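[INFO] parsing input record for HTH-type transcriptional regulator MetR
[DEBUG] input buffer:
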Amino acid sequence: MIEFRHLRTLLALRDTGSLVEAAERVHLTQSALSHQLKDLEERLGCPLFLRKTRPVQFTRAGQRLLGLAEQVLPQVRNAERDIARMAGGEQGRLHMAIECHSCFQWLMPTIDHFRDHWPEVEVDIPAGQHFDPLPALAREQLDLVITADPQPLAQVHYEPLFRYESLLAVSRQHSLAERRFVTAEELSEETLITYPVAHSKLDVFSRFLDPLGVHPRETRTAELTMMMMQLVASGRGVCALPNWALTEYLQRDYVRACSLGEEGVWGTLYAAVRSDQLELAWMTDFLRTARETSFAVLDGIRPAN
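[DEBUG] output buffer:
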């Protein structure tokens, strides 16, 4: 009567707090998700959550099923891993590069979790390498690259992890602090603080300023997100970062944020892997773990459809 898909749906509903976002998380339409839940309630003979509440409030029956989901689904996942290892797919090498300064917030717990379950796979993030990661992946010098800027390379597959919005962080005293969005032209009067990478790798340039031929008044770089936030908060400039990277600073009211343009600038983060490694059991599990961990620890991201 109760199926794994029901338990996964209920967890998604609890974690997201809304039917719309839960449907995106489990890759269903809102109508299909509502039908699935209504069918389950009819089978059980009682409601599982209260409609028209946000965040969703669960009944005692719903809370009981959530408890079951938290107990059963991790056991199923661990059994799947064990079986994959028994099938002989545990050996491997996972050397990766990250084209994303703010990715460590979700990548480190992903790697830790992965190492616990695949100890035979050699995991490393080589340092001090001075080559373009994606061509290095194609040459088998690397095994995975986290990127938001996919390049058309033979035998390289881009697995979408999640979508995110780039937001402009400004000081609380800035004239844009209460604005919903900023125009490209308005940034021509600003000092834009960025990570020390090529402008072509930054969404604020490649997808917002450059297409309109707009340039900021000045640019300066900072290595660390915390350093960028200190500069922004003290009125030394503005910076554009993924929404999840700003969550902590917005919650502390350290800075304010607005969208880039009226429609916002949304990007997709990918895990690039070689096609011949895509079906390896441990690689499949790493990608799945990366997605699950991202949605568990990051705010504001959406499934990559």
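[INFO] Residues 165 and 264 are 7 Å apart (CA to CA).
[INFO] shutting down worker
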